[in-house]
Design a protein that fits this description.
Layout lengths: L7 H6 L13 H14 L16 E6 L4 E6 H4 L3 H10 L7 E4 L4 H13 L6 E4 L4 E4 L14 E3 L6 E3 H12 L2 H11 L7 H13 L8 H11 L1 H4 L3 H9 L2 H20 L1
Helix pairs in contact: 5-6, 6-7, 6-8, 8-9, 9-12
């Protein structure tokens, strides 16, 4: 349905606040920039060498079903959120157990996989022949079969895009590189239903701060680029009638878009 995806420049154009357009950067350029930034920051999202697999084991109790996860303390502490928990700032830290009753186990599993492997399934791979990034083949990947791009969150009435949920969880846990990865992966998705996009957009708005300029701008751009489809959507009409910050931002972004068109004419 949405086979044409917006470029970074287009995404910036539809943000609610205008900003200077930057030059396009490849994933390789981004990796180099990340290396330079990590040397200046204490929040380095790569497992510490040496002690990673010998540190204490922390038990994480996740979700309403209290699903159990186990992880090394040094790996968890890559997240400021869990570093605080392991230092005893959470009541349950003394028992080396952290309770996350509102977390979805499927999403936390992906976060944990990222902390150990710097990626989560389906992984991002570089296609040299096409000179582009893509998600690994879900049908042949180590016998794991296909992977759904959506999840069902207990706080939402319908499906939510998995990468959006991971982005929001990364925001909560202070994992900036995971946010960038989730956003890039979501940009590779296509054929998503209008209702799923709108539900995911509402989820993103409910679980990110108003200062967020990435995932929110992504949804505004997507809706504007596919406005011909959305204006015929009954779901879109119902969502707009219920209102919310999303649709005010959408109005401002569309005004900016019209201003750009007028200026170019």
């Amino acid at each position: 349905m949405f086979s044409r995806r917006p470029t970074q420049t287009e995404s910036a154009r539809y943000r609610t606040t205008r900003s200077m357009k930057g030059s396009k950067r490849s994933f390789r350029d981004h990796a180099v920039g990340k290396t330079h930034r990590s040397q200046k920051s204490q929040k380095v999202e790569s497992p510490p060498l040496g002690s990673t697999l010998t540190s204490a084991i922390i038990t994480i109790v996740c979700g309403r079903e209290q699903r159990l996860f186990a992880a090394h303390e040094d790996v968890l502490c890559l997240s400021p959120f869990f570093a605080a928990a392991c230092r005893g700032q959470f009541q349950e830290a003394h028992s080396r157990r952290i309770n996350l009753p509102d977390e979805e186990p499927e999403i936390f599993s992906s976060v944990l996989e990222y902390l150990y492997k710097a990626d989560y399934y389906p992984r991002l791979s570089y296609n040299k022949r096409r000179d582009s990034w893509e998600l690994e083949d879900q049908n042949v990947a180590a016998g794991r079969g296909s992977v759904e791009s959506t999840i069902y969150h207990h706080g939402m009435a319908g499906p939510v895009l998995k990468d959006t949920a991971i982005y929001c969880t990364a925001e909560k846990y202070g994992l900036e590189e995971l946010k960038r990865l989730a956003l890039r992966k979501q940009g590779l998705q296509s054929g998503i239903q209008c209702s799923t996009i709108l539900n995911s957009a509402r989820y993103a708005y409910a679980n990110t701060p108003d200062t967020d300029s990435k995932i929110r701008a992504h949804y505004l751009t997507l809706i504007i680029r596919s406005r011909g489809t959305f204006k015929r959507s009954g779901t879109m009409q119902m969502e707009m009638e219920s209102g919310g910050r999303l649709f005010f931002d959408l109005f401002v972004a569309m005004c900016n878009h019209l201003d750009d068109v007028s200026s170019a004419a």
